[in-house]
Design goal:
heterodimer, A: 306 residues, mainly alpha, B: 529 residues, alpha+beta, eight-stranded mixed β-sheet, four-stranded mixed β-sheet
């Protein structure tokens, strides 16, 4: 178990290295230069050159990348080009609202998606199953920038229930969390449905039924526990996806968060900031995955860690 | 029932009449207190006026800081932190007499030393100033004489200097706060403005509080402290959400996105203000070193061939004005006669000019010269209004037998292609505060490095532009700018198309809002009903 954990955590090193190298190359090879973006199109060529030198952007790319890695090893993410504040400070400020949003969305997605999936799989009437499948299709195909605006227009403007410009507290979290949860919940419902249908065909379920166990118990005690393994995998991957999906939802609902910070960093070619965010999100992704691997063991005692 | 309604109506009429008759004395003083909520699509990167490169920070500095000189609502230069100023005959020495009743938000004194320190900080290389440094760029040195006189020496005569001083990013910052706060100054700026910095919640909102000591308001507002307690600037990237929040009453003043202008106006619920963009929003520019636009007759033909009103109505949905020359009416130096002077829509004249230049109709349709058809590629940026405008121009030119192809590039890529002169014509637009913009667009020293995408080497035009920068007599300068505008129109270097009108909507409960022609909302006199 300990060896397993150690090995998984060591995997963090090549993963993060690969991710930072990929983002570094993508950022530097796409057209656009932070200095021209900062100074605007009316800047003189000498001003641009001066600022580039001061920011170290005139060095060869490999040198810049190695310098970046060297700083990361000393736990220093550098300073943002745009705001000139330490990257670590910017991220520390923006991470909590995004985690809050992603968590709330995850809770909603699980709370709605899994029961919906079970209902669809076990429904006696085919109409119920079709209805759930249809609703999930809508949830999956509506882009969040659109569904978010629809929710604002309906719940805030037409009904006047929820504020638009508030950014703190539970009331401000409802609409963004629902928007972000919709596609995730739809996926969970579908995976749960397929997984439960699969498990319900297993021998041990037939045995349980034959023993005369109540249907609810068969489903929730025997079937669901096994059916949850693939669901859990999807949910965990989704959580990291929710952090990425927060980019759009945070913009629509004007929430302070890491997603918006990332978009702005990329648009203004703020290399240190963009790198820092990618580094943090990639590490989170790896940790969540390790966590999920550990939860498998709890759900299914047959799973062993080596 | 009907009787009662009539009675009610008469009562209302009576009250209205009474209100009209009564002398204004009975109106209460504007209420003080409360907060105004503004909204910004973009978040400032810093609130340090000298370290910012963004327009949004400039807008916010209008509330937080004052400049030595400012412009009134008609665009005339008036004193702000400087009571008066003089310039030496050679245009090199500017002397400013400062106000003596001003102090910074941190309580430190505003005086000649503070002005000197503030300007020197903007110029210092370690400040890495993106804009403020360039605004003060022509300065050779700053001296003080006593506590209220500042003498600024320039390296060479530079007429746009006074205008540069009115830019919000040229505001005077508190040297004491800069010393004490160091790198944190940009998150807790200290100036002399009507509002002082209170709080900045990242990606959420910025809050300014009323400066109770403010008594040095600009001439276009009352001199005392602002009436509202606070202004809150909510940062919301999504314009549709901004409009929804405004309609719900959560936002006091909104820059209305073009897509919502007609609908919001039609509700007639909100007072609307508008102002013209400071710049030409869209023009077609020719590369004069390339066929077929090296021929001035072809360029002139284009100026007669394009019917600009359709371009404005369809490309910009009518939210703007037709442009006639290199400067819009919203920039000082604009010559009003240009409207009449500029070539008019005249298809017959256009055809005649094209024929004169040797372009003949081919039997199968389309123009040709020496067996080559009239085709060219228009370079443009992927901007919606530009794309639509390009399609109208394309359709109009087709009627003359000219085939225009449209190619769009990401803005940075577009600029580098234009610098290299790979284009024969392009769509461009600009926003700028002073007529000195003609130097950037037309002076031959900017070919290949700056914005002279015409690649036009013209000693006469260069001479006029240089003269406009040297001349410090405003009347003489105006005359030079008139000559520059007529010359550029004569040379047909552009087909100016349109300039945007921007709209601001205000909640009915807000009074005293004024729009400054430089494109910001004056809040000194604003109050809540």
């Amino acid at each position: 178990m300990r060896a397993f954990l150690l090995r998984r955590l060591l995997l963090l090193v090549p993963t993060v290295l690969g991710v930072t190298l990929a983002t570094f190359l993508m950022l530097h090879l796409t057209p656009g230069d932070p200095v021209t973006i900062m100074l605007g199109e009316f800047a003189s060529a000498s001003d641009v050159a001066r600022l580039r030198t001061e920011l170290g952007l005139d060095r060869p790319l490999p040198v810049q990348y190695v310098k970046f890695l060297g700083r990361v090893l000393r736990a220093d993410l550098g300073s943002s080009i745009r705001s000139r504040r330490p990257v670590a400070e910017e991220i520390r400020e923006r991470l909590p609202p995004t985690l809050q949003l992603a968590l709330a969305a995850q809770v909603i997605a699980v709370a709605v998606g899994i029961p919906a999936g079970v209902t669809a799989a076990t429904a006696r009437r085919p109409a119920v199953d079709s209805a759930v499948v249809a609703v999930t299709l809508v949830g999956l195909s509506m882009p969040t920038f659109w569904s978010g605006l629809l929710l604002i227009l309906f719940f805030s403007l037409t009904l006047g229930w929820l504020p638009i410009t508030e950014s703190e507290g539970l009331r401000a979290l409802i609409l963004p969390a629902v928007t972000l949860a919709a596609p995730a919940g739809a996926v969970l419902a579908r995976v749960t449905r397929a997984s439960v249908l699969e498990v319900l065909r297993q021998d041990y379920v037939r045995t349980a039924r034959a023993k005369g166990v109540a249907e609810t118990l068969v489903i929730y005690r025997h079937a669901l526990r096994n059916a949850l393994i693939p669901v859990l995998t999807v949910a965990a991957l989704q959580f990291a996806g929710l952090v990425a999906g927060a980019v759009i939802v945070e913009s629509v609902f004007a929430r302070p968060g890491l997603g918006r910070l990332a978009v702005n960093a990329i648009l203004s070619r703020d290399f240190p900031l963009a790198q820092g965010i990618v580094l943090v999100v990639a590490s989170m992704y790896v940790f969540v995955n390790v966590g999920v691997d550990l939860v498998y063991g709890v759900l299914d005692p047959r799973i062993r860690y080596r | 029932m009907s009787l009662r309604r009539t009675a009610a109506r008469s009562a209302v009429l009576f009250l209205v009449a009474l209100a009209l008759l009564l002398p204004p004395v009975i109106y209460a003083q504007p209420r003080t207190g409360g907060e105004l909520v503004l909204v910004s699509t973009e978040e400032p990167e810093t609130l340090d006026a000298q370290k910012t490169g963004t327009a949004v920070t400039g807008l916010l500095m209008r509330y937080l800081g004052d400049t030595l000189v400012t412009k009134d609502l008609k665009g005339n230069y008036v004193g702000a932190l400087a009571r008066s100023w003089t310039v030496s005959r050679d245009g090199l020495t500017w002397t400013f007499q400062l106000r003596t009743d001003v102090k910074f938000h941190d309580g430190s004194p505003f005086n000649a030393d503070a002005v000197k320190a503030s300007i020197e900080r903007a110029l210092a290389p370690e400040t890495k100033s993106p804009i403020a440094g360039a605004l003060f760029g022509p300065i050779a040195g700053v001296q003080t004489s006593g506590s209220s006189t500042v003498i600024i020496k320039l390296k060479q005569p530079f007429a746009p200097f006074l205008d540069n001083l009115t830019d919000p990013r040229a505001m005077i910052v508190s040297p004491q706060a800069v010393r004490e706060l160091g790198d944190r100054f940009g998150r807790a700026p200290v100036g002399t403005g009507a509002f002082k910095f209170q709080e900045w919640r990242s990606a959420d909102r910025i809050i300014f509080a009323r400066n109770p000591d403010y008594r040095w308001g600009p001439a276009y507002a009352h001199a005392g402290p602002p009436l509202v307690d606070r202004i809150v600037v909510r940062i919301m990237p999504e314009s549709a959400a901004q409009v929804a929040a405004f309609e719900r009453g959560e936002i006091s003043i909104l820059s209305v996105p073009p897509t919502d202008v007609r609908r919001l106006r039609a509700t007639s619920k909100y007072p609307f203000f508008s102002y013209l963009r400071k710049g030409v929003g869209l023009f077609l520019e020719f590369n004069v070193t390339k066929e077929p636009f090296s021929d001035i007759r072809v360029r002139r033909a284009f100026n007669h061939a394009i019917e600009k009103n359709s371009v404005l109505q369809i490309g910009l949905e009518g939210l703007g004005e037709i442009a006639h020359g290199p400067l819009p009416p919203s920039i000082w130096g604009y010559w009003d006669g240009i409207k009449e002077y500029a070539p008019k829509y005249d298809p017959a004249r256009a055809k005649a000019l094209l024929a004169e230049a040797g372009w003949r109709q081919r039997p199968g349709g389309g123009l040709e010269k020496d067996g080559k058809p009239f085709t060219f590629v228009l370079f443009a940026a992927p901007i919606d209004t530009w794309r639509r405008s390009a399609q109208i121009v394309q359709a109009q030119l087709r009627a003359y037998g000219i085939a225009m192809e449209i190619q769009t590039f990401e803005f940075g890529t577009l600029l580098s292609k234009l610098r290299a002169g790979e284009h024969s014509a392009e769509f461009m637009g600009y926003t700028y505060t002073s007529p000195d913009i003609v130097q950037l667009w037309f002076h031959s020293s900017n070919i290949g490095t700056g914005l002279t995408f015409t690649h036009n080497k013209d000693a006469k035009l260069d001479g006029l532009i240089e003269a406009s920068r040297r001349e410090t007599d405003q009347t003489k300068r105006l005359a030079i700018y008139r000559d520059i505008q007529t010359y550029i129109v004569d040379q047909a270097l552009w087909v100016p198309l349109w300039t945007n009108t921007f709209y601001v909507a205000v909640q009915p409960g807000v009074d005293g809002v004024k729009i400054h022609p430089d494109g910001f909302v004056v809040l000194n006199d604003a109050s809540l009903k």
